[in-house]
Amino acid sequence: MGTGERSARNRANVGERLWSAAEVSNSIHYHLMDCDKLKKPIKETHSMDGMRRKPQPTDTYKVNIDASFLASSNKGGWGYIARDRDGIFLDGGAGNITRAMSVLHAEAMAALHGLQRAAQLGMPRIILETDAANLGRALTSDDMDLSPEGGIFKIIRSFMESNFVSCNV
């Protein structure tokens, strides 16, 4: 995520104007186009302490997701980017959410769309990456199944179990 998106999120966290679904969609589209221009694969990644991380197996793919939510209209936007083990862009998508209950619901919709596309593309092993810690917890346990968004969490977990050899969040 670029510094412009971080600044927008920080401004939103202090109560300033949130991005509209169209603005999020446009930003995702811009970044997808930018990723498409990249020719060099990312050969290795480094953690914070400079140690090399072990590369993922060849049939493991990373799906990054994000979403936006505007409480005043209950609308939002979702997006995902799928990459291979070398960080090469493979697919991406974005869309609008016409009715959302919460930001967590919007994040769950982004996860569902990204996972559905990964399954369509035949990706057997997935690493689903989100910046929403609550979503990560909801998709890896049943702790939040009684929440208003609990139904979609159950649907996503069932989808992950039936469509992938492994799916780590």
Structural class: alpha/beta
What's the level 1 CATH class of the domain at 60-167?
Alpha Beta
Provide the CATH superfamily of the domain at 60-167: Ribonuclease H-like superfamily/Ribonuclease H
Strand order of the main beta sheet, please?
A: 3-2-1-4-5
Strand segment tally: 5
Pfam families: RVT_3 (PF13456)
Protein name: RNase H type-1 domain-containing protein
Domain RNase H type-1: 64-168
GO molecular function: nucleic acid binding; RNA-DNA hybrid ribonuclease activity
Write up this protein.
GO terms for molecular function: nucleic acid binding; RNA-DNA hybrid ribonuclease activity. Residues 64-168 form the RNase H type-1 domain. InterPro entries: RNase_H-like_dom_plant (IPR044730), RNase_H-like_EbsB-rel (IPR052929), RNaseH-like_sf (IPR012337), RNaseH_domain (IPR002156), RNaseH_sf (IPR036397). This protein is α/β, with parallel strands linked by helices and 169 residues long. The protein has a domain at 60-167: 2-Layer Sandwich (Nucleotidyltransferase, domain 5). It has helices at residues 3-13, 21-36, 103-120, 133-140, 150-163, and strands at 60-70, 75-83, 89-97, 125-129, 166-168. A five-stranded mixed beta sheet has the order 3-2-1-4-5, sandwiched between helices. The longest helix is centred in the middle third of the chain and has 18 residues, at 103-120. The chain is globular and about 45 Å long.
